[in-house]
Amino acid sequence: MRLEKIVLFIGLWFLSDASFTQTKIRVLENLRSDLNQLIGRFDAQVGVGVKHLESGDTLTINNSFHYPMLSVYKFPLALAILKEVDLGKFAIDQKINITKEDLHLNTWSPLAKEYPNGNVDLTIEQLLSYTVSKSDNNTCDILFNLLGGPKEIEKQMRDWGYLNIAIETTEAEMHLGGDSSQQANWCQPFELIQMLEDFYLGKLISEKSTKILMRQLIETSTGEKRIKGRLPKNTITAHKTGSGNKVVNDVGIIMLPDGTHLILSVFICNANEEYEASEDLVAKISKATYDFFVN
Q: Is residue 175 domain-resident?
């Protein structure tokens, strides 16, 4: 009976492959056409990566360009920190003393607003929460320093097999160096799709660390008008944003109503549009992709 089931499964797989491959390609091309219509009317460089996790359906648009990540790179930073936690180099509840010298007041930093004089002890988990959920630039650089700088995070990415990504400068260096320093931290949209998939499937860090980071991504308070902007209320979305001069990014995992998962990355740079319009373009791309896989 077991052999018969295997033979039947293989036979159905070949039948599915022969009968429906062209239909699937045609339908995905309909989504591509819809997204290209949205992007084509927009004066910017726009890259999109899409993957429906359970079916494997995949689509990319303008994937070969090197898009500046800005704060999206805090996601791979968090992965690298949690990898070291798993290896025992750090403890998730280990406290780090934050001094006044650690806090730059002329950058995005909810922590600096709460503790402008520093002199506060935060655990690794709390530092990650500020960095991921609140996109704090100061805590980002504190975590970079713990690992020995951005190149150490890039090395971890290479060890995991991610080649289409570069991490070279801290938030402070991006702030001082302007656009050129921002562009040094780049990726291709589908590289983040693959990273998010591997993360969600538990291939990169431990189950405990995966749960911690997933919760922090879901609690992200920045970019409410981007991937989540046009989705049905209360749609569970684990995402990380990035923002800068003519740059609006958002990458994440969306829970669909049937319990399956849509992974989406949208990168916009060189935008000659209003900032709010760039955010809404991300929302429109997200909603069109969501509707496609739901319907």
A: yes
- How many residues are listed for the chain in this entry? 295
Estimate to the nearest angstrom the gap between the alpha carbon of 172 and the chain centroid.
21
Q: Does residue 23 lie in a domain region?
A: no
**Residue 242 is assigned to a structural domain of this protein:** yes
DSSP 15-29: HHHHHHHHHHHHHHH
pTM: 0.90
Tokens of 287: 């909603």
- The count of structural domains within the chain is 1
Catalytically active residues are 71, 171
Q: Print the domain residue range for 161.
A: 41-294
Domain membership flag for residue 270: yes
Question: CA 210, 212, 215, 220 torsion: positive or negative?
Answer: negative
Q: Are 149 and 142 in contact (CB under 8 A)?
A: no
Q: Which token pair is 37?
A: 């219509």
| Beta bridge partner(s), residue 247 | 244
Residue 198 token pair: 């591997």
- How many helices, marked H, and strands, marked E, lie in the chain? 11, 10
Residue 198, domain CATH = 3.40.710.10
Per-residue pLDDT of 221-240, as tens digits, reads 999 999 999 999 999 999 99
Backbone angles phi, psi at 87, to 5 degrees: -85, -5
